[in-house]
Amino acid sequence: MGMSYQIDEQQQCIFVRLHEEITEWSLWAGLEQLWNDPKFQSHFARLLDGTGVRVAAVKPEFIEAVARDFRSKTGGKLALVAGDSPTMYDFFVRYRDSLALPDCRVFKRVEEAISWLGITR
Asked: Of 9, 28, 33, 40, which residue has the fewest beta carbons closer than 10 angstroms?
């Protein structure tokens, strides 16, 4: 399935959900769709929810490349939610470290991320 998103203009937040199996192709296609969405604003906060991922077929080099491309498209806080999955935790830590942004954190629970972002769901 890959990725889906919702842009909440009122809260100035982009909610991204990663689903079931993520591949390099599904992530890139989803990100291209997001970045080309007319409602996309680079200063909006983002919540990436990876708790629904069962298989992550993505190489570390790809994660780093996406982070480099994404760095220029972000200005707001970024919350990454890994849940209890060690695979998603490692995925998001690599992504966070490659982004090198001051307001980027990895969480286990969506509720913690929402609180940190200062938004409602």
From this structure: 9
Q: Tell me which residue of 80, 28, 24, 34 sits closest to 56, measured CA to CA.
A: 24
Q: How far apart are CA 39 and CA 8, in angstroms?
A: 9
Quick one: tokens of 5?
A: 């998103």
Cross-sheet strand order for the sheet of 78-81: 2-8, 13-23, 45-57, 78-81, 104-107
Q: Dump pLDDT digits (tens) for 97-120.
A: 988 888 999 999 999 999 999 998
Quote the radius of gyration of the chain (alpha carbons, Å). 13
Residue that is written with structure tokens 């199996």 in the block: 21
86: tokens are: 């060690």
Q: Name which CATH class applies to 2-117.
A: alpha beta
